[in-house]
Amino acid sequence: MDQVVQVISAKYPCRKALIQKLYQLFGDGDPFPPAVYLYGHISTGKSSILQAFLPLLNSSTTPTSWAILSAIECYTNKILFETILNRLTGHVPCAANGYASLASVDSMKDFVTQLARLPPSRSYIVVLEN
């Protein structure tokens, strides 16, 4: 724990309490909480700390995939669901795959079906901003 907290705290001074709390919630091998709400004033480092924390979490516990996305940019359910799936699986729409998403997801039912196909040996975190 100390190593992860120290590495991130060195980059983000005065945020050690937040970083320790994140590690308590996600870093000790226990099941993840169903939801965590990070809130605070604008431009206080919430997103930056999460972006630094999640890769270190992956190396210290069970394999973890995550998706960080802006809810404002995902203005339809289809875009939201497909973006989450693409990021959780590491799929990148590009010229080689015709800029196609991993799967066509038009509804919540399709999204849940696709989530059920993800490897159960991994843990998953979805971060929605804004």
TrEMBL record:
One of its GO terms (molecular function) is DNA replication origin binding. One of its GO terms (biological process) is DNA replication initiation. InterPro entries: AAA_16, ORC5, P-loop_NTPase. GO terms for cellular component: nuclear origin of replication recognition complex. It comes from the Eukaryota. SUPFAM superfamilies: P-loop containing nucleoside triphosphate hydrolases (SSF52540). Residues 13-97 form the Orc1-like AAA ATPase domain. Belongs to the ORC5 family. This is Origin recognition complex subunit 5. It comes from Culex pipiens.
